[in-house]
Specification:
Aminopeptidase; 5 helices; seven-stranded mixed beta sheet; 169 residues
Length: 169
């Protein structure tokens, strides 16, 4: 896959991001994948995150959203008080109709470059401990598991990738 150039999401993208998330929640439920339960990301929260400049989208020639990524520069909800300069990926989504094109890896490459450009040394993300397929995907990309965080109803594996020279992306 060629490099991607996600654009910042706008208020006009909120419904498309929400629809993509809901379609992936439905697909996960149908396939027995435990990552995002149905209805776990309300439209209102997406709208607030878009307004904060956190979401980026990749659209096709018809301007349909094919993929998304949410970038954060701190993530106390998952990583606690860790002050390591890092870029955090959430909301990495690829429309199932575009699966297999390398969009997920291309978005990780893009996020890693954003981190390097900002001078941080690690790219971080998480996945539920109940999703070994996604963990293997991230580990095949070059991430390594560095911890686990427990919430009331689920637990997540914390993964990071060095952005120093010699890192993957």
């Amino acid at each position: 896959m060629a490099p991607v150039s996600p654009r910042p999401a706008s208020a006009a993208d909120v419904d498309a991001i929400h629809a993509l998330r809901r379609s992936l929640e439905d697909w996960m439920a149908a396939t027995g994948t435990v990552q995002w339960p149905r209805g776990s990301l309300p439209r209102e929260r997406i709208a607030a995150q878009v307004a904060a400049g956190e979401w980026h989208v990749v659209a096709d020639d018809d301007l349909d959203v094919l993929a998304t990524v949410r970038l954060l520069w701190s993530d106390p909800d998952f990583w606690g008080a860790d002050r390591t300069p890092a870029v955090y990926v959430h909301g990495l989504m690829v429309d199932r109709r575009a699966a297999g094109r390398g969009l997920g890896s291309a978005l990780l490459d893009w996020a890693a470059q954003r981190g390097r450009d900002a001078g941080v040394e690690v790219l971080r993300l998480d996945c539920r401990t109940t999703n070994p397929v996604l963990r293997r995907y991230y580990e095949a990309y070059g991430f390594r598991a560095v911890g686990q965080v427990e919430f009331a109803t689920f637990s997540c594996t914390l993964l990071e990738l060095s952005l120093r020279v010699g890192g993957r992306a």
